[in-house]
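Hi there,

I know you've been waiting on this one. I reran it after we fixed the sequence typo, so this is the corrected version. Both the input and the resulting structure follow.
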Amino acid sequence: MTVHDHGDHSHPEHDGHDAHAPVDDLDHYAPESLLMEQALRELLIEQGVFSAEDIQRQIDLTESRTPALGAQIIARAWVDPAFRAALLEDAKPALGGAFALDLANTPELTVLENTAGLHHVVCCTLCSCYPRNILGIPPAWYKSREYRSRVVIEPRSVLKEFGTELPAQREIRVVDSTADMRYLVIPLRPAGTEGWDEERLAALVTRDSMIGVSQALAP
C-alpha cells in the first residue's frame, strides 16, 4: 500500500556517486529573480541589517554541515528508547536536550520511524525543503523535478532504482516537506547489531536512509 501525505504548499545515487550527470535546473533560471535578490541583499547590507561577512559566515556554516550529525541522532535513537520516544513526540526539544542543538529559529521538524510494516520516504514536491541543519546540503537528485514528481506517484519503482526493494505488504508513505515542516526518517535498525555502541551504529546510517530512499547499511 502506498500513501502520500502532502503538506501545504530520479535519480538515485549508488555507492556514494551520482548515477547520472548533475541535474540541470536552468529551465527554471530566472535572471530577474536573481537581480531582485542581489538588490535586496545590498540594500539590507547598506541599512546595517546584516553585513556581507554575516552572509559569508552563514554560507560557510551551511556548506560545512554533513549527514554525520543525523547519523549520530539515529544511532542514539536505536539504543535509547526514551530518547527515541521523545524524538518522535517532539523532535526539537529532544534534540536540544540530547545534542545541544539550537533549533528555535528553524522550521518545525518531524521525525518518522520506519518499521517492519511501514516505510517513510521524504520529498519536497514544490522545491527542495530539507533539514539542512541536520543533514547538510540536499543531493541533486532530491531537488530534481523527476524525483519530486515520480516519488509521489510510483514510490516503489523509485525506491527500486535506489536498490531498495521492499516486501509487497509493507506500506510506503511519502511525506512532503514544506517551508514550515522538515522530516527526518529513523531507518530500521539492521539485524545483527545487538550490543553495538552508538559510534559503530552511526557508521551504518546513510544520508539516503534518513530520507527514506534506502535502508541502513547491513553490518
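Quick highlight: Residues 51 and 186 are 38 Å apart (CA to CA).

Best,
R. S.
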